Amino acid sequence: MYESYINKIEDVGKLRNLKPKTITLYQKNVSRFLNYIQKNPEELTCEDARNYLLHLQGKGDKASTLNNNNGSLVFFYKRVLGKLWDDNLVPRAINDYAVPEVLSFHDVEKLLNATEDLKYKAIFAIMYSSGLRISEVLHLHYEDISRKNMQIYIRDSKTHTARYALLSKRALDILTEYWFTCGRPTGILFPNKWTGEYLTTSGPRLVFKKSLKIAGLPHSIRMHSLRHSYATHLLEDGVDIRYIQTLLGHRSPKSTEIYLHVSNKALLGVQSPFDKRAGEING
Predict the structure, then answer these.
(1) 261 has catalytic annotation
(2) Active site residue 250
(3) pLDDT tens-digit profile of 14-44?
(4) Can 224 be counted among the known catalytic residues?
(5) Neighbours of 89 (CB within 10 A)
(6) Which residue in the list 32, 158, 170, 210 is annotated as catalytic?
(7) Which of 11, 29, 63, 104 is deepest in the core (most CB within 10 A)?
(8) Predicted TM-score (pTM) of this structure
(9) How far is Cα 32 from Cα 48, in angstroms, rounded to an integer?
(10) Which CATH number is associated with domain 105-282?
(11) Is 133 a catalytic residue?
């Protein structure tokens, strides 16, 4: 009944260079909305969107979920249907921001030591030592690793903005061991061993959970906590939050300010905490 409109979301999304995951999310959210409202899309009003979001709120959905659906409906109304959107009638919900879950450096070490598979050990080491998202790590290519400049080139960022990240010497050592042991990949750095294509996040997620259990760490910790830990440890070491914003690839400083729950010391210079703390332990 609504297939043609759902397909239009994909067409418009591609023209606007949206990520495939974003397009799929919009399609799922809008499909649920249309099935709930049961109206001709050409006759939809902002009141319909408001009623649907109130329905989701009544079910107990969190503010982040409401805003997720709000964004999908805004895109559908404005970009696909060409309708006006009333932000006053259908406002975004105020988010409840939780303090990020952060691992101590010793917990990071325990996690890596509990990860036997070199491929996933390298993935987790890069996530922590360079503050990368899991999607960014999985889309790395061999040529993105600069041993000369000790940098990583991020080509596939969530924000569509290319950037450079720190390359930790310790992480490079783990990565080099993986590279020599696991076939010396010269294209995709962490290819699926069966297809040669990019890994999905499901494999690393399963291994991460297994490593948490072996290391005796809380099962509630997520892979993204490695990125949170990187940012928090840099703050603890006195790195200015503006540098951290750049390293993390945040467009808005508000995204980085969530880490200000940690006291900021004097600026010591940008160095990966993966290397700095290792020197403290070995020294």
Answers:
(1) no
(2) yes
(3) 999 998 889 999 999 999 999 999 999 999 9
(4) yes
(5) 11
(6) 158
(7) 29
(8) 0.70
(9) 13
(10) 1.10.443.10
(11) yes
